[in-house]
Amino acid sequence: MNSAHDRKSAIKKLKSLVYSTKQDLEVFRKNLDKAFYSPSLPNDVECNEHKYGNIRCDVLMPPVYSTERIMIYIHGGSFVGGSKSAYRSFCATLANATSCRVVVPEFRLAPAFPYPNGIEDLQIVFRSVFTEEQVSLSLDAGANKKSEQPEIIIAADGSGASLAMALLINLRERYRECISHVILISPWLNLSSDSPLIKEKKVHDEVMTGDCLRRCADLYTNEPNLANPLVSSLLAAKEILKGFPPVYIQMGEKEILLEDAKQLQRNLHDAGCICDLDIWPQMMFMFQMADEYIEEAHLAVEKIGRLITYEEEKIDDATLTRAPVLESGLDREA
User: Fold this and answer.
1) Do residues 38 and 88 lie in contact, with contact meaning Cβ atoms separated by under 8 Å?
2) How far apart are CA 182 and CA 168, in angstroms?
């Protein structure tokens, strides 16, 4: 069981991911990097820098990985912070759990580079990853590869989920077809003025507040853009969502963002798409990134690993009592 002290320490660390209206922007960025950067990577994961297009990215490679599968991870940080170095340790753990390489782009941040600059950077990265992986598969065609096109996973957290959804909405069908999974962790999905989290005062959970969302939305783009589905994907019409790859959302029961995630699940189901919403009891925003304090963080990443590697082994009873899934919306007939 997690102690009250551990929970308090986890919350303090996770608050570094959310830009407060009272913070200096540069101080926020430095504190975020300081809170999550680690000079050494877990599980013997190797890190190399590589440019996809003109965008610098980390490429994290676990000791054992599938050459046919690659993940693009879009980091959070309230649109104004976060970096590949801050997310290096977490994404290394994710790379090991999923047995695949993980690409972490250093995309441009607001307010100096507001919407749609970050999305444009991610489009460059996606196309470059797709092309390089396709070439690699073609060169290895004599080795009895399973397919001629790569398997790409899109993963994101927090504000990065808004960018990820915008990337997916903009993708042509031939690109979407190669995406096997979309993984969203504690996603920000609605920044419009109609959002209850934006409209209502004193909305908060243990980590974030409605005021933070309002402030970050203002820094990310102008008010008329906030209802654009490329900014607030919760407002995307059914026609836009049709043909989406399978989506898996993982988040804590205590998050103010939870109702938006439930609505996205309904929207995707209405569009005939698969969406699994995995809610962890008593957990807070981005608990997965506080694994030194929260034992469920390890279990949650392991579960993502099983999802990606198609492993179907049963979880032992002790694990089930610690981290049951409260709500699963996997529509296997979609």
Assistant:
1) yes
2) 9
- Which residue blocks in 229-291 are alpha helix, DSSP H? 238-241, 258-270
Nearest to 153 by CA among 89, 76, 230, 98: 98
Burial of 310 (0-12, 13-18, 19+ CB in 10 A): exposed
Split at pLDDT 50, 70, 90, the class of 201 is confident
Q: What pTM did the predictor assign?
A: 0.92
Give the end-to-end CA distance of the chain in Å, rounded to a whole number.
38
User: Tokens standing for 117?
Assistant: 């600059």
* Residue 19 three-state SS: coil
**Taking a C-beta distance cutoff of 8 angstroms, is the pair 298, 88 a contact?**
no
159 vs 46: CA distance, rounded Å? 27
- DSSP, collapsed to helix, strand or coil, labels residue 180 as strand
CB contact at 8 A, 189 and 257: yes
Model pLDDT for residues 171-200, shown as the tens digit of each residue: 998 899 999 999 999 999 999 999 999 998
- Residue 188 main-chain phi, psi, to 5 deg: -90, 120
Q: Are 98 and 154 in contact (CB under 8 A)?
A: no
> What is the structure's pLDDT at 149?
83
Using CA atoms, how far residue 144 sits from 19, 59, 135, 138, 139, in Å, is 49, 25, 15, 11, 11
Instruction: Provide the 3-class DSSP secondary structure of residue 33.
Output: helix
